[in-house]
Amino acid sequence: MPTNGVPTKITQGSGTKGGIGESTLRPDGTLKVTGEFAYSSDMWHEDMLWGQILRSTVAHAEIVSIDTSKALATPGVYAVMTYDDLPTDVKNYGLEIQDTPVLAHGKVRHHGEPVAIVAADHPETARRAAARIRVEYRDLPVVTDEASALAPDAVLVHEARDDHHIGHVPHPNVVHRQPIVRGDVEAARRRADVIVEGEYTFGMQDQAFLGPESGLAVPEEDGGVHLYIATQWLHSDLRQMAPVLGLPEDKVRMTLAGVGGAFGGREDLSMQIHACLLALRTGKPVKIVYNRFESFFGHVHRHPAKLYYEHGATREGKLTHVKCRIVLDGGAYASASPAVVGNASSLGIGPYVVDDVEIEALALYTNNPPCGAMRGFGAVQACFAYEAQMDKLAERLGMDPVELRQLNAMEQGALMPTGQPVDSPAPVAELLRRVKAMPMPPERQWESSEGADVRQLPGGLSNTTHGEGVVRGVGYAVGIKNVGFSEGFDDYSTARVRMEVAGGEPVATVHTAMAEVGQGGVTVHAQIARTELGVTQVTIHPADTRVGSAGSTSASRQTYVTGGAVRNACELVREKVLELGRRRFGSYHPAWATAELLLEGGKVVTDGGEVLADLADVLGDEAVEVEEEWRHRPTEPFDLRTGQGNGHVQYSFAAHRAVVEVDTELGLVKVIELACAQDVGKALNPLSVIGQIQGGTTQGLGVAVMEEIVVDPKTAKVRNPSFTDYLIPTILDTPTIPVDVLELADDHAPYGLRGVGEAPTLSSTPAVLAAIRNATGLELNRTPVRPEHLTGTG
Amino acid sequence: MRLNFTVNGRPQEADDVWEGESLLYVLRERLGLPGSKNACEQGECGSCTVRLDGVPVCSCLVAAGQAEGREVVTVEGLADFARQRAEGCGTGACGTSLQKARRWEARGTDSQTGEGTDLAPVQQAFLDAGAVQCGFCTPGLLVAADEMLERNPNPTDADIREALSGNLCRCTGYEKIMDAVRLAAARQSEGV
């Protein structure tokens, strides 16, 4: 067993400037502050056309007819395409289950489903032409929740399923179901002195990345197409696109354009196939850019959920058992629902030691908007509920909520409900201790010599209170998230690293297909190359499909997996460079054969610090290049009946303390401070790590107090697809976020690092809810909390 | 219609502008200045913030025709604008003196990373403080923050939050943006 918390020893590169562990600045930073960074929506081509998608105005209906004649007759229109114009027999796509039509055929299953596409010479012409397409719908009954999905006479969202989940689901309107059973809950329940139950509701959250879905498809002379695109995973897109386009994968070239945020919302395809179809049809470059309204329909959302929990404990506060049922609304198409179910179930009781558990998680097919990946991926919904339960239990037992958590906190060596041992540091109690030990923000900060500063009060500049009716509350929460793709998925990354002399200096070039979506992977790759190759000059090659897959920029996995691939490729390059050196200079100095050699500061040195040669001399005119795939430890699927299995690669943990002030008369909440402590294993770039934690924390705050896509329960239509009606936190809504970063190495991971991006999104929401409960004494079983829930008027 | 206005100190002319086009569309699609971003097209997110005769506006909500004869500063012109302001040319439209033009030489900028580019102090502060992640909100925030620091060189935290409350950011949680603006203000007052 590796020693708990000893940082990985790094010898190679520890003397090179700008290597891992330093807060080096982003290589794309200057372009981003000058406006020159080319995002997907900035792409431009001579003679390019603009594409527009016509989307369904109803949620569930048969398509009786589509009349495109008026659109085709519009001056400036080059093409109009419907299902009938698709070039091959492959007309669906999907991440795991190919159930999503490129263009609707015969029926639509959710509000905003693509029905037809138009290309024209001006975006407004394309929009107007699309509006002139006449689609006649015949309404079908809508499936909107568990009751309507699983009723004996329920309408089936997908009539003829043949996917690999259909054999084990209880109903064709269930995408996937995962039970997890360990121990004997009935027996454990008899040992419980206290049992608390709760029903919780989690609203539908949107990723709300600022750069809307967009890209430019350029037809190529060989009949292929080149797509410049904002995505999270180039090769996954390619695999889904090529069969629909009827092209071999090598004729669909993909280059990553600038990505304006992702958060899971770009895991699925959006306009990729549509733009390529129009480009191939017209022979002209076609650009598609969604506006914000369309973006709300153009990507999957975070699954809304109903969660039912029972926790039991002894008088002393030891958990006896947990029983829970998590019902996720997957909407009309599968997207990532099966994997979200796997996470919600396997992480469903949180970072606690419980021997007797019964967990069930499932995702429904409904006619609501499709749901899939969003930061936290199934673990977020569960954390909101189990942390509310822990507070409820603490109250019933008369215990401090942090102490109750610490008493039941898992440590390294604990078993997950899946039976998987946690074999790296799990500092759950320590993170809670740290976040609790942070200094509290002073009371009544709004008071000043000039009266109340309303900007620091609930209601802000609306000037609704000067402190009257304002009550403070404090809440805590902790969460557990898996890192990397789980359940037996072959989750590899590829890196190509090249070293050569340019301008008299050794330069490393790192080429991967990793989607830089803002997280700073490009910064970290350059740092790894400097550390491993002892150079200062590193060029990050644009990401494209001319190199092997880097997997998805999701699941907090890129620094671990593509970072691991870059390190691995650098190590191989280093060996080749040293081999070259031995061939060229080995006879001049015995240390070439006997000493451990390092690359430092552009030189080959012995581990004793003696310089043997300049890298530039070793390389001469030669370039050393390596392209290699790299894999983390394999995982295995969860058993379909018991949920047992070593399904996850790594776990990550974060804890939050929220301090809120609530205007109890108007139900307005001001989050005063949201402190976070997180274990990151090893902070490769501390500045970026803190940025990830603060950003994730803020998305958790959003879904605590404001963010929710509202879907009409009668029509399944989206009611608030705009930033006017779907609110995300502004700088006024966001408090200070002090961060305490713990670095306990995971010896299975490169440099001991732990995936960072998602864990802070989990515990932020329940901490804010706990603080509001603490301030108001209300039960609050749903998120987001709206004013009417606090004033009893809702 | 034909549109004549000044962008980043240079007179610009755009022909065949459709009356429904926004100032943002003309900047991005007709003048080759895509730095101002389109993220909501309804004035909620601030990503398209530019200065119109000195006033920060959401260029997505300004009809192109409204810019006729006026002066616009975008993120692409922010460094020049800040330099000229520092040199005492408040409007940013002073242009380049003959003497300066004679001294001009090509900068050794790196075409891939932009290294070596002249930056406004607020741009440098955003880089140094880690305020840029995906960067889509950055141009609008920079224009808004620069304008605030021009008006209020020593802002309190509450002042900064109020001034930037019209600019949404989804990546950073705003903490590093606060750090960046504080840093720019501190450097400005120290004369760095």
UniProtKB/TrEMBL annotation, chain A:
SUPFAM superfamilies: CO dehydrogenase molybdoprotein N-domain-like, Molybdenum cofactor-binding domain. PANTHER family: XANTHINE DEHYDROGENASE (PTHR11908), XANTHINE DEHYDROGENASE SUBUNIT D-RELATED (PTHR11908:SF157). It holds the Pfam family MoCoBD_2. Residues 1-14 have a biased composition (Polar residues). It comes from Streptomyces griseoloalbus. Residues 1-27 are annotated as: Disordered. InterPro entries: Ald_Oxase/Xan_DH_a/b, Ald_Oxase/Xan_DH_a/b_sf, Ald_Oxase/xanthine_DH-like, AldOxase/xan_DH_MoCoBD1, AldOxase/xan_DH_MoCoBD2, AldOxase/xan_DH_Mopterin-bd_sf. One of its GO terms (molecular function) is oxidoreductase activity. It comes from the Bacteria. This is Xanthine dehydrogenase D subunit. Residues 34-141 form the Aldehyde oxidase/xanthine dehydrogenase a/b hammerhead domain.
From TrEMBL, chain B:
It holds the Pfam family Fer2_2. InterPro entries: 2Fe-2S-bd, 2Fe-2S-bd_dom_sf, 2Fe-2S_ferredoxin-like_sf, 2Fe-2S_ferredoxin-type, 2Fe2S_fd_BS, Beta-grasp_dom_sf, Diverse_Oxidoreductases. This is Carbon-monoxide dehydrogenase small subunit. The keyword Iron-sulfur applies. It comes from Streptomyces griseoloalbus. GO terms for molecular function: 2 iron, 2 sulfur cluster binding; anaerobic carbon-monoxide dehydrogenase activity; metal ion binding. Residues 1-78 form the 2Fe-2S ferredoxin-type domain. Keywords: 2Fe-2S, Iron, Iron-sulfur, Metal-binding, Oxidoreductase. PROSITE patterns: 2FE2S_FER_1, 2FE2S_FER_2.
